Hints:
mainly alpha; elongated
Amino acid sequence: MDQKLDTDTLEMRLQTLENRLYGERRNKTGKPFKCAEALVRVQAGLTNTANKRERVKILHKKIEDLMKYLDPQFTDHITLPDAMKLEFILAEEDSLLSEAALLEQVNNLQPLLDSTHIRDVPEHATKLQRLSQIHIKQQDQTEAQSQEVKKLFEEYNKMMFLLSKQFTQWDETLRKMEEAKGIRPVE
């Protein structure tokens, strides 16, 4: 049923195309022009011409050779003898074996990649993004807090230095006063 419908649709489209190309013109017998008939005549003419011309026959026979020569792998086949290819393979034997081992390992780990945990990653991506934003915010806060603590330590150290200096001056002044009064012996 579908095939008949497809055929009918194709015939209608071909009829529309013929009407657009030829309009109401008719051939010598009075029948409307048909595209298929014209294409068959052209193809027959080209075949006859090709069969009559020896050079065209030779060209048709050589098309397969031309396709083979145009293939990019053909130059590799010509330029590299089999012995050279074998040497390349043997030179890369260690790397090929390690690659094969890695591929085998990936193949063995395939069930892990198909696990529900891996399949649920997109669902957790939004949560992870939110947590990442929180983490970045906390890092910024930590940096600000570290700067504040560093500033407080610098002020503390400066204050301790000034207090120590002041106590040293007071101690020196007190010692001189005690020596002057004779309360404390000179060291």
